[in-house]
Design goal:
The complex is a heterodimer of chains A (about 325) and B (about 625). In chain A, about 0% of the residues lie in helices and about 55% in strands. Chain A has about 325 residues and is mostly beta strands. In chain A, the strands form seven sheets. Chain A has a four-stranded antiparallel sheet, with no helix packed on it. In chain A, strand 7 and strand 8 form a beta hairpin. Chain B contains 31 helices and no strands. The N and C termini of chain B lie far apart (about 75 Å). The chains are: A mainly beta (about 325), B mainly alpha (about 625). The interface between A and B is medium-sized, with 23 and 15 residues. Chain A: This is GNB1L protein. Chain A: InterPro entries: WD40/YVTN_repeat-like_dom_sf, WD40_repeat_dom_sf, WD40_rpt. Chain A: Keywords: Repeat, WD repeat.
Chain lengths: ~325, ~625
């Protein structure tokens, strides 16, 4: 007898706008409390204290334009946020400060979320959609120098990049970029040469979101159709479709694989969050709480596995926190 | 019988005479079963024997030629064997030509497909005979296409001719088709029209397949005629005739000891070789086995049964809302949802439906498909049946009056008939219905029952009190009583039946049952038969029976076999539905007349189904008479 799906642990209300992005920062020791950052459509980044479940501060740095990506650089002290005002802001949040120390003007009017990768102590790589339609630019932070610009070949007709993922096999090795485009294809880029190594057409519609497991060299992408595409990277650095998983309702906004690579969560346009086992794409649960499209899902990075939670932000202005499959 | 192989001119005419006489007396089987294999053997490689055989046959006198030729045709094991045995007999001898090209193909139809293959293959094997092949094809197509043949000849004969046409087509080569393309096309077009006009689905299918095949052969480039007909064994068999497998050529290389008397000797060889690659192909899919073990067992899935497709619009909850949506609304999603929910709404709200029943029936009858939802016709029909069963009398009045009104399509009129039948079935078998007033008495919860049932209430309460007070020592097996409800069709059978039967002979400008629209007449007759059958034990059944018998009598000589089949099923329903005593009291003369008509049908009707139904009716009448005789009056 299968149990009915669980209810959320708690629900965070108070953003008063659709939630587009979420980021946890729970690795801190006592007396630090676990923190959740959320970016909303009204331009605010809310910082939530997950113990008291209340907003600590609201960061207003994007001129009331929608914030669609937040990511921490140094645990909770430094935060990057990307908004529709074409800016990426770097916030200094240590010791209670809330100021923008630096910003990058991207001149990009798309919706592509950036991707951040820590390559060395104090050095990060950030991939973002560039000014020109099909290009992706990789910057080194904090120096903001451009590492490379990835241009698809002429006539490729890929459309805008929709989602990006920077990854490296282990720290110190070469970084790679996976980019999903508007025409439904995913491209693996080699950053040092600035060349595309492999292109795979996974979907007929734009790729909305993707995530990649570098250990198993397997990735998953979702689009506005009714399928999830699981693909793998072989030794010759070629992408191949591994499996297709059909969904009940069409439209996926976000996919994320948990850090222990055991489960993954998808945020759907049908208001539901789906949990799958990553190894064989076994459907595990359908979490039905929200009353509008779920825009983002994120797993927490708690040190203690039993405290891990999943957060989902939706258009109905709520963030639901779920505790699911925490025993393993 | 042995011949001296030397002299060519020994007199064989005596042997021919003997052969002919024996065959004509009906002993073809015996003599030819010995003769033909011998000759097959001898003529295989020896030209002299071939010539002897030909001479033998040529010398058979004309009056016996038919018997001999038919015997040979049936006994030969393949087209080329026949060719070796008969030679150019059909070209040289007029009688043989007539038998092979006319009698065998057009006048008789009892032979197997293999015989047809032999004959037509034989005609195709020699250049002299090919001219005959083309002539045969043209004549076959003419017969196939003549409307009187389609209407009056039995289905088996039509199938035989169709097979012959397909085999001919398979033998013809491109230049020959080129020469007679126009005539083929003209005959095919005329013929396909007659076939599609027929009310019997088998004839229509035959027409479609032959037309498709002819079109395929004569239009090798450019668009071909394509029908959407359902595949079944018959159609597949016919289509397979179009492709000629060349095993006939293989026969001469078979070893000598292969003496097969069966006509399809060559075919098993080809079939065997076809089966082997098929068996090999079946093995490979089994080899795919999932070697990876599922080690994800530690993650137990939750219940995901609630995960269904997201519905964006809600269906209306009230019947009047449904009516509004269906008549006025432009909102396509709402319209969709309404159609899907309509039947269950009607059944759940009988009182509300009764207020608007005629209006709803009107809307449903005229409802056209706005969007492409699956099963639109079925959804509409079920809604109509639901309305009819909820409020039978006014809705039946409306529907039957509309059946005979102007400006409806044939499809709509047939819909009316279908709905009447389905509703009648539903009302006369109450067990199949989920809602049953008696079942509510068995539910443990207290329900507000309508006033008339209050007597059941107190009884139930008293029963339960008694049950709780008595101590049971052993609980026996509780028997579940079958819920039986009243047959609701009884009281309204007349309302369904009589309006339909009243106006059938009055033609309207757009609807003429007795004229062009005989297909609808056929459906009407079948409908009346079903209604009659379901009205068994109704009060009006005798009156219905009498009216129906008169109706049958008026139409008994109709030319359409579908209508005749319907009339015969009407007679069966009358015999089964009306109580026997009433039958014999009120309708004695009519029954006697019917009996003589049935006997006539059994003997003379060209359609096999009609004959069978008439025989069944005669047997029924016999049984009824016997039953009455055994019952002491």
């Amino acid at each position: 007898m299968a149990l009915p799906p669980p209810d959320p642990e708690f629900v965070l209300r108070g953003t008063s706008a659709a939630v587009h992005t979420l980021q946890f920062s729970c690795g801190g020791q006592e007396p630090d409390f676990p923190i959740l950052f959320s970016g909303s459509e009204n331009g605010f980044v809310h910082v939530w204290n997950l113990k008291t479940r209340r907003v600590i501060t609201a960061l207003d740095g994007h001129g009331r334009k929608s914030v669609y990506w937040v990511e921490t650089m140094d645990a909770k002290d430094r935060l990057l946020s990307q908004g529709r005002d074409q800016r990426i802001c770097l916030w200094d949040l240590a010791e209670g400060r809330t100021s923008v120390t630096d910003s990058i003007f991207t001149e990009n009017v798309g919706f592509c979320r950036c991707s951040l990768l820590k390559v060395a102590q104090g050095r990060w790589l950030m991939a973002m959609a560039a000014k020109s339609l099909e290009e992706v630019q990789v910057l080194e932070l904090p120096s903001k120098t451009s590492v490379c610009t990835l241009k698809p070949e002429v006539g490729a007709k890929l459309g805008m990049p929709m989602c990006l993922k920077l990854w490296q096999l282990d720290s110190g090795s070469q970084p790679w970029l996976l980019a999903g485009y508007e025409d439904g294809s995913v491209i693996l880029w080699n950053l040092s040469m600035g060349k595309a190594l492999s292109q795979l057409v996974c979907h007929q519609e734009p790729v909305m979101s993707l995530d990649f497991d570098s250990e198993k060299a397997k990735g998953i992408s979702g689009s506005s159709e009714k399928v999830l595409s699981i693909w793998s990277l072989n030794e010759q650095q070629n992408l191949q479709v591994h499996k297709i998983h059909k969904l009940v309702n069409s439209g996926i906004s976000d996919i994320t694989i948990r850090s222990d690579k055991k489960i993954l969560a998808t945020a759907g346009w049908d208001h539901r969050i789906r949990i799958f086992g990553w190894k064989k794409m076994k459907p595990l649960a359908v979490l039905d709480y929200h009353t509008a499209t779920v825009h983002c899902v994120s797993f927490s990075d708690h040190r203690n596995p039993s405290e891990r939670v999943l957060a989902a932000g939706s258009k109905d202005h709520r963030i639901s926190i779920w505790s699911i499959y925490t025993e393993t | 019988v042995c011949f001296a192989p030397g002299g060519l001119d020994c007199s064989i005419s005596f042997v021919s005479h003997v052969l002919g006489k024996v065959c004509v007396h009906g002993r073809q089987k015996e003599i030819l079963s010995v003769l033909v294999p011998h000759l097959t053997e001898l003529t295989k490689s020896d030209c002299i024997w071939q010539r002897i055989c030909w001479r033998l046959l040529e010398c058979v006198p004309d009056r016996w030629m038919e018997a001999v030729v038919l015997g040979f045709v049936q006994r030969a094991s393949g087209a080329d064997v026949l060719s070796r045995l008969l030679g150019n007999l059909v070209v040289k001898n007029k009688k043989a030509q007539f038998v092979v090209t006319q009698k065998l193909l057009l006048l008789q139809y009892g032979y197997t497909t293999a015989v047809l293959q032999n004959v037509l293959g034989y005609l195709s094997l020699d250049s002299l005979r090919r001219a005959l092949l083309i002539k045969v094809l043209q004549e076959l197509l003419e017969t196939w296409g003549s409307s009187s043949a389609v209407k009056h000849s039995p289905a088996e004969q039509q199938q035989y001719i169709s097979k012959a046409i397909l085999i001919c087509l398979s033998h013809l080569k491109e230049p020959e088709i080129e020469s007679c393309r126009q005539e083929l096309l003209a005959s095919m077009m005329a013929g396909v029209k007659c076939h599609l006009d027929s009310s019997l689905p088998q004839i229509r299918r035959l027409g479609m397949i032959v037309a498709e095949s002819v079109s395929l052969k004569i239009n090798t480039d450019g668009p071909v005629l394509k029908f959407q007909c359902e595949e079944d064994n018959e159609t597949r068999e016919l289509k397979s005739l179009l492709v000629q497998t060349p095993p006939c050529r293989v026969v001469p290389s078979l070893p000598d000891d292969d003496r097969n008397e069966r006509a399809d000797a060559a075919l098993p060889v080809v079939l065997e070789s076809n089966e082997k690659p098929h068996a090999a192909a079946c093995v490979t899919p089994d080899e795919q086995s999932d070697a990876e073990l599922d080690s994800d067992d530690d993650l137990i899935p939750y219940d995901m049964s609630e995960d269904k497709e997201l519905k964006t619009t809600k269906a209306p909850v009230y019947i009047r809302d449904c009516i509004e949506v269906l008549t006025g609304s432009d909102d396509v999603d709402k319209w969709d949802a309404t159609i899907k929910a309509l039947e269950s709404l009607i059944r759940k709200n009988p009182a509300a439906t009764r207020e608007v029943s005629v209006e709803l029936a009107k809307i449903l009858l005229h409802l056209e498909e706005k969007t492409c939802i699956e099963g639109f016709a079925e959804l509409r029909q079920r809604a109509q049946v639901a309305v009819l069963t909820t409020d039978p009398i006014p809705v039946a009045q409306y529907l039957t009056s509309q059946f005979y009104s102007l400006n409806y399509s044939l499809r709509q009129r047939m819909d009316v008939l279908d709905v009447l039948v389905l509703a009648a079935q539903e009302m006369s078998y109450p067990k199949t219905r989920g809602k049953n007033k008696n079942s509510s008495a068995q539910k443990p919860c207290i329900q507000l029952l309508p006033g008339g049932d209050s007597s059941k209430d107190w009884r139930r309460i008293v029963d339960e009190r008694i049950k709780s007070k008595t101590r049971r020592f052993a609980k026996g097996q509780s028997q579940v009583e079958q819920d039986s409800g009243p047959n609701e069709f009884n009281s309204i059978a007349g309302h369904f039946f009589f309006p339909l039967i009243q106006k059938f002979d009055r033609p309207l400008s757009t609807f003429d049952l007795l004229g062009e629209d005989h297909f609808v007449l056929g459906r009407l007759v079948h409908t009346l038969a079903v209604l009659m059958y379901l009205a068994v034990n109704a009060m009006a059944v005798t009156a219905m029976g009498k009216a129906l018998l008169e109706f049958v009598w008026a139409l008994r000589f109709h030319t359409d076999s579908y209508v005749r089949q319907g009339l015969l099923s009407c007679v069966s329903s009358i015999l089964l539905g009306v109580p026997t005593e009433h039958l014999l009291e009120d309708m004695t003369e009519e029954l006697l007349e019917t009996q003589s008509w049935l006997a006539d049908v059994v003997e003379k009707d060209p359609d096999g189904d009609c004959r069978r139904l008439a025989l069944q009716n005669l047997l029924l009448m016999e049984n009824l008479k016997k039953k009455l005789e055994t019952v002491p009056s």
